[in-house]
Amino acid sequence: MRGELETYQAKRKFGDTPEPKGRKGHGRTGARKAGLGYLIQRHAATRLHYDFRIELDGVLKSWAVTKAPSRDPSVKRLAVEVEDHPLDYGTFEGTIPAGNYGAGTVQMWDRGTWEPQEDDLDAAFEKGNVKMVLHGERLRGKWALIRLRSDRGKPSKRNNWLLIKEKDEYAVPGEGDANMEIDASIVTGRSLAEIAEGRKRRLSPAKTNKAAPPRPEARAAVTSHAAKPHAFVPIQLCKIADYPPHGTGWAHEIKFDGYRLQVAAGGGRATVRTRKGLDWSDKFPELAADAAQWPDAVVDGELCALAENHMPDFSALQAAISAQRTGDLVYFAFDLLFEGPEDLRKLPLSHRKARLQAYIDRIPKSARKRIRYVDHFATTGQAILESACRMDLEGVISKKLDAPYQAGRSSTWLKSKCRGGDEVVIGGWTSEGDRFRSLIVGVHDRDGLRHLGRVGTGYNQTLLKTLLPKLKAAETDRNPFVGKDAPKKSRAGGMTIHWTKPVLVAEVEHGGYTDTGSLRQAAFKGLREDKPPSEVTERPRAPADPAKEPGRHSAAAPLAMPGERPPAKGKLVVAGVTISNPDKVLWPAEGGKPAITKAELVRYYEMAAERLLPHVADRPVSIIRAPEGIGGEKFFQRHAMPGSNPRLKLIDVRERKPYVGVTDAGGLVAIGQSGGLELHPWGCKPDDPETPDQITFDLDPDEGLDFNDVIAAAKTMKKELEGLGLNPFVKTTGGKGLHVVVPILADSRSRIEWDQCKAFAKEVSEIVRRRDPEHFTTTIAKKARGGKIFLDYLRNGRMATAVAPWSPRARPGAGIAFPLSWGQVKSGLDPRAYTLHDAAALLRKPDPWKDFRDGAVNLRPVLKKIL
Questions:
Q1: Which of 61, 142, 165, 255 is catalytic?
Q2: pTM metric for this prediction
């Protein structure tokens, strides 16, 4: 098989047509494997068709395809083989004048490279079955050209072929003819009409005063420019489903965690509106400024803030809005409702999305920074949901490809969630002294606001600065909740309840419901200023198990924490993390105490999250892992490893690899899922590994010493530190010693360096040793201890760690590093009393370290005294 151009050249009058003449054999005649060019030209000749061309033997082998290639494997396109074209035809875009062969406008519709799937291409062409892999900008993956045969089994005289998409990850079942709606050059962004008109490149609405005149063979994608942005278009909403729908004809998109916004662009201006039509252009000025340069249209999408792992983060979005730093927010566009004056809502979704993709291609690069096209996936919705859940995303939106856009809730858009993320109405909050503790939330029904419990985690100082003033502005003496389960105002346990008018909506994440009907493990994500309280009428739904479809057999029933009622049967999912081998014994039965399994460990992490996270969240953490239990191999994990759970955060510490960290209960559970039995965080400020915010003194007794000696040592250290104006706290280590820990301020005015932190800890330890050398030593060597207590100050350097309060220990007995009050540090204290076996009871007691950060002191003046 050899390429030849005589037929191509004989059909053309090169004095009249701008097409390249080319020459026989021009190009890489020996290239058959790597870097072969591929392109499709949209050709408005007598009939609109698509010229499919692949580079081979120095020419472009060519087929005229009757309709746009479809990524739907069930759609077969007739492809008529035509004469070979020269390689430089692959850059041609323009108009072939009337009277010439192929007269009409040519648009560069796709381009890239291709590679054959067979080793013997000559045999493949002879057989009439050419399989290829395309690497284009619009078409990708495996495709096949199959030559048709006559009824007698001989090749057709017309050299007719079929162009077919093969089934792979790039296939889109149900897409049908959607690609025919893409009227935009992949090179210049021009429509066929604009190419025919002679425009050099598509202009933005701000730079043009007239539209391209329509041509009979091609409709311009934008037929006119509006004098002003289009009015608000009522949006389509999702119905909630437990699982994505089965079968073909559905598009599955990632559910984004942000604000639903509609952007209307027109006449060099733009309006950004909420789901209810409120104008929020001033809230997001950068997006509005970009959109003013977009072609006239109405776009539907979601505005998000992206975390360090490039995943949407609703809390980060709230913080960005509060701080008026919205320049880095990203608008994920998933639907196109109007293009110019043309109403696209009656078109099938597949067509609207094709038009949207082409529309975004035409946006000037200077205005394309903040908009991204939301592609959809062709594999089963269940597979997409499971992938989304593994990546800690909210879930999946499934949409019927052949359905029009319908305002309101419709069964053609279904939402399947990984975790319980819902809106609730705020009816009050609790405080302890001046300290905010939790929100009290509910949903509206016909009788009023129904109580759903409290939301006790997910807050940080940035969010509270925005939240508290709004709560206080809505404060009232009247209890807004109705029904027998409505909370009563009290001051029990030092807590004060404050009621609010039900005017604020919160976004929360939760893990289902407790036996009493309250939200379980609810965490605050942010306020929803775009949604009125009157719309919050649906009781939040418990998250579905992404690995469990209807009809799929359940795994072993999860186990409860010791002393608690086992949960309902089913596969174990804790805080959105699927637990493998939940029955795996990590601590064997001992001394009359039962064994502790992985299921019990992860449930402990979930239960203890509110108390544990303040000491580990957003800090590099070293993890002691024992996947086979404490009797098996143990090892430290500091760095992210291949296949690390996406619930874990990656923290840059200027090493070859990032450290792992956690941000929420799901991250703690993910550590438990991997057999992580101990947590050893850096003593640094959250999200700032270079700034220490606490100092740890490890009181390590020599063999044979009584624990009362350790208690006495802790009191000595307390007295020394208080004499320096510091506020020491104390905890058991889960072993034979105690930790005395001092919180220090870490703001810009009080910040110290790691070497100063370590030097201070060493000097205080030396002072205590010099005063009582018979009982204390600062020498690490075992032989130097001689019945003394080693004052270990080495846990205060950069990259040094200490076990976290509430962390389990990978030792016999299943001890916990338990935070104590100083009143508990007295004769008779037994550190072995604090174990995972007693966790449920221990967590019901007040937290002795609840004011730990409030006790932080500026260390700089103290350093001047003793160093």
A1: 255
A2: 0.46
